[in-house]
């Protein structure tokens, strides 16, 4: 029952944001009483924390899959781009704003995930690309990794790229192409054009 409640909350939060959804709404969608919801989650904050943990765990798994399936560092980067786009497209932009404003504990999980796991994933990809001769050997990994994280934050920030004016796929395509061309060797450029062209056609 706990998983069922969480799955329902996930769907409602992703669609409508967090603030407008009550525990009664979740109970109604589940076809159970509000009392039953409270038997599994002490309050809405605990439910939001569980929701946030689910989001980060899901994205962690998808990024690891991209790493495993990528034949080289450039393909890994493009595959992870696709997974990130899918995640962002499934979430109402107001959700992250509400997490930051009303749920500091849950928001800290998001920021910690970005600063730790995402940053390390970027560093690992850079190191792989250098080993494979696809990224320049003289790049400063620590600096570039933080620049990439800032780049991603900006691309997904609705204040910088509002959905009414920009398509997230187009934004990420341009941002990632710019990023790759700044770090890649000639062979890396060749593969980037190939993988990005294929990615552009899929969406």
From TrEMBL:
InterPro entries: Homeodomain-like_sf, HTH-type_Tx_Regulator, HTH_TetR, Tet_transcr_reg_TetR-rel_C_sf. Keywords: DNA-binding. SUPFAM superfamilies: Homeodomain-like, Tetracyclin repressor-like, C-terminal domain. GO terms for molecular function: DNA binding. Residues 1-59 form the HTH tetR-type domain. It comes from the Bacteria. Pfam families: TetR_N (PF00440). Residues 22-41 bind DNA. PROSITE patterns: HTH_TETR_2. This is TetR family transcriptional regulator.
């Amino acid at each position: 029952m706990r998983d069922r409640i969480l799955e329902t909350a996930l769907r409602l939060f992703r669609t409508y944001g967090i603030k407008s959804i009550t525990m009664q709404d979740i109970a109604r969608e589940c076809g159970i009483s509000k009392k039953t919801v409270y038997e599994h989650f002490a309050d809405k904050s605990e439910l939001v924390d569980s929701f946030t943990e689910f989001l980060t765990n899901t994205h962690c798994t998808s990024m690891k899959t991209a790493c495993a399936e990528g034949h080289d560092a450039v393909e890994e980067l493009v595959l992870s781009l696709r997974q990130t786009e899918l995640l962002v497209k499934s979430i109402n932009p107001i959700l992250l704003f509400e997490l930051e404003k009303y749920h500091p504990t849950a928001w800290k999980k998001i920021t910690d995930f970005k600063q730790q796991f995402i940053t390390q994933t970027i560093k690992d990809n850079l190191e792989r690309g250098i080993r494979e001769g696809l990224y320049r050997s003289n790049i400063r990994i620590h600096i570039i990794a933080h620049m990439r994280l800032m780049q991603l934050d900006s691309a997904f920030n609705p204040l910088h790229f509002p959905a009414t004016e920009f398509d997230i796929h187009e934004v990420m395509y341009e941002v990632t192409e710019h990023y790759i061309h700044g770090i890649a060797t000639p062979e890396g450029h060749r593969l980037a054009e190939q993988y990005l062209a294929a990615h552009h056609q899929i969406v």
